[in-house]
Input
Amino acid sequence: FDFIGTSVDGYVSALSLEDAAVSEVNAMVSATEKGSAAERVKAIDKFYESQSEGHRLLLSDLCRKILSLDKKNETGLVSKYIVALSHADAYTYLVTGDVEKVLSIYEKNAADKRISPEDAQTLYYIAANVLANTRVGSADKIIELLEKSIAASPESEYAPTLMQILDSVKQMKASEEAAAADYSAEDSAAEEPAEDTDAGSGE
Output
């Protein structure tokens, strides 16, 4: 909301132009508190979808109500909001650099029995990607997460791409281990004492 002016009346007049938009938002918020559990869940979903990506992070408390309002997933929206809450909760720790906590959130929610196979695949992949980008986790852990991602939905459209990524990580790990082994062998050879040529000469 941009306002250029100096008077209070001018500001109030400009603000009044947003009355319709404010009323619409207030109506959507009010709808999340009325009706049956299913109606409230759908109202929360409508409000969530009306917001920008940045603002959606602020709605985690509201979205969390979906998990208690729809325990049997009758609306089919539970998996969607497990993913949404994963991102919101993980973001809090990602900005502080607590990668281990971020990882635990994604792994725990990916294993939730209420989540769809496709969404579980996504969360496992995101966890692997976080580790790869932050360079906090080992290659073995990244491989483990990628394998879980593929296993979650092996027939998905993303599975072939995930297999390629997994193969690349395994090849990278093998190359690093081979290079480390070569370096260790060269280092050991350099540390061996020179042979004493005078030994046993009797002189």
